[in-house]
Amino acid sequence: MPSDRFYTRSDYPRPRTTALVWMVAAMVAVFVLQSLLLLPWFGASHTMPDALRLTVRSLEQAQVWTLLTHGLLHSTGFPLHIIFSLLMLILLGRELEPQLEARRFVLLFAAALVVGGMAWLAVHWNQGGTHIGPSAGLMALLVVLARLYEDQRMSFMPFFLFTLTVRPMQLVYGLAVIDTLLLLFVELPGSDLLMGYAASAHLGGMATGWLYFRFFHANNGWDRAPGFSLPAWIKNAGKARPAPSEPAVSRPARDPYALKADVDRILDKINSVGFAALTDEEKQTLDDAKDLLSKR
Questions:
Q1: Confidence band (pLDDT; 50, 70, 90) for 123?
Q2: Nearest to 201 by CA among 83, 122, 96
Q3: Spatial CB neighbours of 256, under 8 Å, sequence gap ≥ 6
Q4: pLDDT(120) > 50
Q5: Are 96 and 18 within 8 A, CB to CB?
Q6: Domains of the chain (ranges plus CATH)?
Q7: Separate counts of helices (H) and strands (E) for the chain
């Protein structure tokens, strides 16, 4: 029937906006608002950036939200800062969000911002200063992606001069060495790095990514990590007794013509929105059709 075709129906669930899209939109919106508020027409106000940026004074005043919100801010005088951040977030997020799922992807990024911010505070507690940008979160994503694809090779052309082929973890190790040297010989002595480069925050983000992959992702949870064992009374506390099995109920035979029409409709739906959008009843219909074909 024409009403069974996918292009005549509008009851399918629409794809949800991904967490990556919301994160990119938030960064762009904050950057635009930053730029507008700094214009003379708006009084060149620094109120919003001051409330979101991470400083030692903000923590002394119990503004703990700045451990997260500093990742939304970028330098308005250097547009390449936000361009590079967005490119990195999109490139890494497109690969990682489908594998980690939205909730873990966002929590990993947020946790890296907090840990990176705390690492920066530990280094600059007596020096002072200001820290903005999502670099710690990006470093965490890079480490997790490198661990997932550590056996693959990647090629790029530094400054378009030559082709360099490395494994992802080799790139991470190289960045870790550079950041460690900058931390020891530049940031800790109190010297200013170019464009507010924060090696301490980068290393904090890398550590967060490594810990996440080591104890959460690779082992499907911190309680499954090698060498870790929960006490027996904790393991059994949340276990419910198995419910008594119910006798199997035979399903009545379906009309082959009606079944064929349902299968056509379900196949159209799969072609339109994917198998994951099917209901349990629709999946059972496909199983019934499979059983019917196997009996012929």
A1: very high
A2: 122
A3: 292
A4: yes
A5: no
A6: 19-224 (1.20.1540.10), 252-296 (no CATH)
A7: 12, 4
128 token code pair: 């002072």
> Which residues does 130 contact at the CB level (< 8 Å), separation at least 6?
53, 54, 55, 196
pTM of the model: 0.70
- Cα 107 to Cα 102: distance, rounded to the nearest angstrom: 9
Kindly list the distances between the CA atom of residue 77 and the CA atoms of 55, 81, 82, 239, in Å, as whole numbers in the listed order.
19, 9, 10, 57
pLDDT tens per residue, range 241-292: 555 555 545 556 666 767 777 888 888 777 766 676 778 788 888 888 777 7
Least confidently predicted of 83-92, 176-185, 208-217, 261-270: 261-270
Name which of 100, 107, 103 is nearest 148 in CA terms. 100
Instruction: Give the C-alpha separation, 106 to 135, whole Å.
Output: 15
Residue 231 reports pLDDT greater than 70: no
Q: Is the Cβ–Cβ distance between 167 and 151 less than 8 Å?
A: yes
92: tokens are: 């890494």
